[in-house]
Write a structure and sequence with these properties.
The chain is mostly helical. Among the domains are: 251 residues, Serine Threonine Protein Phosphatase 5, Tetratricopeptide repeat (Alpha Horseshoe); 81 residues, no CATH class. Helices cover 50% and strands 3% of the residues. A two-stranded antiparallel ribbon has the order 1-5.
Length: 503
């Protein structure tokens, strides 16, 4: 018996020693000595940008383009976006994806704030990217989690409150001001980790301030925000321009140019070829280009017998399909976007990674000048917008811009009414915003321009949807705050206007 007790005691001591040893060595054993336990800012930046643009581009293709009559997904089935009819689960993809990437950009800021990795440029870039993503989310959904979002891991906030869109915008403006200051210090960043500007900090600063102007313009129509927004636009463009540099050329456009080498492979390559070429080009989109003899669809300006925007002809002509046609009268698909089975296609086009381009900025300035908020010629800004919209795609295009504008009959008219001037600006801006996430839809909701034809088969009383509904799962996972958001903003339906849309 004594022998058994001694054996048990020995075994107990041995196990204790082993347990202590295991605890002591656990972290060492389970840590890869060849990798850092925390990602560096330059390691976080590129993957987050690629993923964010993936979500934006997919929803641009199958949501924005359908609403804005760029394309028509022909058929009479339910859930056709071009009819202003889409299923509630359409909301999930963008919401889930963009909030996920916000975590990565917030981590980037956090790591760049630590003493070992301290870098003001990465902090500024993070704030710009967060502002960019939050603006897309709030413009799409309205009131959203903002101040308490993405805080489950660190702060155990599992049910974040929904902030009012007005408050979100006010804080975004503060973040963009902070980013401008941080980037003014011009702290170097790793070029290989920056697929947008190749490590050029000054261009990130210009993008941030240009984005600032986009968002100031978006809230400029609200009575409670108008005066401050207009004053800030003037401050950035004129009064304090030296402290707020903005884009000055197409080279400074914020575009992640897909190289085709991983990880910089266009998200459109994840779309099946037959699906990419399966949707028709909308009549509204293509007809204007034909009337203007726009060089972006001029075969002689393209490659391998295909125009720059890789749109197929139908019986020798560019022919679209009317959006919102009467159910039961399904038209024949005519012009469409070529897929990878052709020698040229947008599926591999480097310029589709669009965040914000220089032409958009010019049209922002044209609107501000036309409304008398800034000095300078609205006509000059307008003409420059058209020129740079074309030359982004055709850098060697050499036709004098006034020759093109006159022939296309799209010349500026100083005697036109304010509404006529806005229609001119926003019709051209519509084409400049081609492929830029949901910006065509956002701008249409803000201005009512360009004036789109209303097909007889539209639902929602023929009124452009005002927002995406919240994902269904939010109702069950965050019920209290969801109900509070609905009570404050209005019913969770596509017709409820967001704050900056409301009179």
């Amino acid at each position: 018996m004594k022998s058994i007790i001694n054996k048990i005691s020995f075994f107990t001591v041995l196990c204790s020693l082993l347990f202590v040893s295991c605890k002591k060595d656990f972290e060492e054993i389970n840590t890869d000595p060849n990798n850092t336990p925390v990602s560096l800012p330059q390691q976080l930046m590129a993957p987050a940008l690629v993923s964010t643009l993936t979500y934006n581009m997919i929803r641009n293709r199958n949501f924005n383009n359908e609403l804005m009559q760029v394309t028509v997904d022909i058929g009479d089935a339910d859930g056709k976006v071009f009819r202003y009819d889409y299923r509630s689960n359409w909301a999930d993809y963008l919401y889930n994806g963009l909030y996920s990437e916000l975590s990565n950009f917030k981590d980037m800021y956090k790591v760049a704030s630590e003493e070992l990795n301290l870098n003001d440029s990465y902090k500024g870039i993070s704030l710009i990217c967060q502002s960019w993503i939050y603006s897309i989310l709030t413009d799409a959904y309205g009131d959203i989690p903002y101040s308490e979002s993405n805080r489950a891991r660190d702060d155990k906030i599992f049910e974040p409150k929904f902030d009012r869109q007005q408050d979100i915008y006010l804080d975004i403006f503060k973040q963009l001001d902070s980013a401008n200051v941080l980037l003014s210090r011009n702290k170097g960043i790793v070029a290989s980790g920056d697929p947008v500007f190749g490590g050029n900090v000054s261009r990130w600063r210009k993008f941030g301030n240009s984005l600032y102007l986009r968002l100031l313009l978006r809230v400029s129509g609200k009575a409670e925000a108008s005066a401050a927004a207009i004053a800030k636009i003037k401050d950035i463009v004129e009064t304090n321009a030296a402290s707020y540099p903005i884009m000055t050329s197409n080279d400074e456009s914020a575009i992640l140019r897909w190289t085709g080498a991983g990880p910089y492979v266009s998200p459109y390559l994840s779309v099946r070829e037959q699906d990419f070429r399966g949707v028709a080009i909308g009549s509204y989109f293509i007809d204007n280009l034909v009337i203007w003899n726009d060089p972006r669809i001029d075969i002689s300006q393209g490659t391998n017998g295909i125009n720059r925007w890789a749109i197929a002809t139908y019986q020798g002509a560019f022919t679209g399909v009317p959006s919102g046609y009467t159910p039961g009268t399904v038209p024949i698909k005519k012009s469409y976007f070529y897929s990878t089975s052709s020698t040229s296609t947008l599926m591999t086009e480097p310029l589709t990674g669009m965040m914000m381009n220089y032409a958009e900025l010019k049209f922002i300035l044209a609107e501000a000048a036309a409304k008398g908020w800034i000095s300078g010629s609205a006509e000059t800004y307008y003409n420059d917008g058209i020129l740079n919209s074309i030359k982004l795609w055709l850098p060697s295009w050499s036709v004098p811009i006034m020759t093109y504008i006159t022939a296309a009959d799209i010349a500026w008219n100083n005697a036109a009414t304010p509404s006529e001037k806005m229609e001119k600006i926003h019709l051209q801006k519509y084409y400049a915003l081609f492929l830029t996430d949901l910006q065509q839809w956002f701008e249409y909701r803000r201005t009512g321009h360009p004036i789109l034809p209303n097909g007889p088969g539209l639902q929602n009383n023929g009124i452009m949807p005002a927002r995406l509904t919240y994902p269904v799962y939010v109702q069950s996972t965050n019920p209290t705050n969801y109900q509070a958001a609905v009570a404050a903003q209005g019913p969770d339906v596509i017709s409820t206007q967001v704050w900056w849309q409301k009179p």
